[in-house]
Design goal:
Blueprint (H helix, E strand, L loop, with lengths): L18 H9 L4 H8 L4 E2 H7 L5 H13 L3 E6 L5 E6 L1 H4 L2 H14 L1
Antiparallel strand pairs: 1-3, 2-3
């Protein structure tokens, strides 16, 4: 005799977080990989990032930078110059993404 609870589906299922999901949440949208690629080479100013990433709008770049900063992947440094100078650089957390992205690049070269 089967229990009537064997097909039970909870109204609020338990969500088990996946570490890959967490990583993808940190990486964010479509421009994040390109921003990271540029910052792996060292600190950059907003204009340098915008020139290095074709087709990114200032709004999309700003949103991506804010997201990565909120996730602790990069730091924003403001210097009191006229006009104000702002530089972006990776944190140690951001630097740790470099080998992961390198492996993704190698996989794409092999399989796409």
């Amino acid at each position: 005799m089967q229990s009537s609870r064997s097909n039970y589906i909870p109204k609020n299922p338990v969500h088990i977080e996946c570490n890959i999901e967490k990583t993808l949440e940190v990486l964010g949208g479509k421009w994040a990989f390109l921003v990271l690629r540029e910052l792996f080479g060292g600190k950059k100013r907003f204009g340098e990032l915008q020139r290095a990433i074709p087709h990114v709008s200032p709004r999309a770049l700003t949103s991506t930078l804010r997201h990565l900063e909120a996730k602790g992947v990069l730091e924003r440094h403001v210097y009191p110059t006229v006009p104000v100078t702002v530089e972006y650089r990776l944190t140690p957390k951001g630097e740790d993404l470099h080998p992961i992205i390198q492996q993704m690049k190698l996989w794409a070269a092999k399989w796409t």
